[in-house]
Amino acid sequence: METENRIYGIRAVIEAIESGKSIEKLFVQKGLSGSLFQELNRHIKNASFNISYVPVEKLNKLSKGNHQGVVATISPVSYVSLDELMEISQQSTTTPLFLLLDGLTDVRNFGAIIRTAECCGVTGIIIPEKGAAPINADTVKTSAGAVFKIPICRVNHILDAVYHLQTYDVKLIAATEKTDDTIYDIQLDQPVGIIMGNEAKGVSNSILKAVDYKAKLPMLGSIASLNVSVACGAILYEVVRQRL
């Protein structure tokens, strides 16, 4: 069965997967067995979405009926592939501007970033399939509906997307304090991808080694960092300023 953005029951979840619905997360009861579960297990063996094995009490809270040990959370949006996103960018008359979110976990930050990205004409947003903030009701509300107006792409790893974009001559810029360069030192009227990191850890080291540029915002006060959605907004509007 289905309620709001959740589907519960093994058969219903199998049908959702087979029909190509965008599953954000799958909750499976610990110790679940049986022939129907084995069929589900074959579907999720190589799944790219998040899977959590939880006690039955957790599933009872998530569902309103007989969940049969399985509850899936469905995304309210349809994701595009990286190839589809590149096709969209090539068909556009504006200079490509991509936003890559490396492990962002707060849904309200995510929603605020989506809203700003849409206002700044971002071509598309790229997020990892695992370990990222989901698109849920809070995300939709905080984005003021912008989540339905901008292409969002999920990839296995952000680093793979970095390499892929570089083959299209997109310059990748990581927002990080681990540099002396500010965002104002970089030419942004070319095709670029801005990478924002996790709220606590920032952009991962493997990505920092792969990017074309690293940039920071100047900090003039006593507090060492900005909220990631605020920092993202400041950087995106510097791109807008240079392109106007």
Structure description:
There is one protein chain. The chain has 244 residues and is an alpha/beta fold. It has two domains: 2-74, Ribosomal protein L30/S12 (60s Ribosomal Protein L30, Chain: A), CATH 3.30.1330.30; 82-243, SPOUT methyltransferase, trefoil knot domain (Alpha/beta knot), CATH 3.40.1280. It has nine helices and eleven strands. The chain has helices at 10-18, 35-44, 56-62, 82-91, 107-119, 137-142, 158-167, 205-210, 228-243; strands at 2-3, 6-8, 23-29, 50-54, 70-74, 97-102, 124-128, 152-155, 171-175, 192-197, 213-215. β7, α6 (137-142) and β8 form a beta-alpha-beta unit. The radius of gyration is 20 Å and the shape is elongated.
Q: What is the secondary structure topology, with strand pairs?
A:
Elements: E1 2-3, E2 6-8, H1 10-18, E3 23-29, H2 35-44, E4 50-54, H3 56-62, E5 70-74, H4 82-91, E6 97-102, H5 107-119, E7 124-128, H6 137-142, E8 152-155, H7 158-167, E9 171-175, E10 192-197, H8 205-210, E11 213-215, H9 228-243
Parallel strand pairs: 3-4, 6-7, 6-10, 7-8, 9-10, 9-11
Antiparallel strand pairs: 1-2, 2-5, 3-5
Helix pairs in contact: 1-2, 5-9
Q: How many structural domains can be distinguished in the coordinates? A: 2
| Residue share in β-strands | 15-25%
The CATH architecture designation of the largest domain is 3-Layer(aba) Sandwich
Low-confidence stretches: none
Q: How many beta-strand elements?
A: 11
The helix-strand sequence is EEHEHEHEHEHEHEHEEHEH
CATH class of the largest domain: Alpha Beta
Q: Helix count?
A: 9
Main beta sheet: strand number and arrangement? 6 strands, parallel
Structural class by secondary-structure content: alpha/beta
Q: CATH superfamily name of the largest domain?
A: SPOUT methyltransferase, trefoil knot domain
As a whole number of angstroms, the C-alpha radius of gyration is: 20 Å
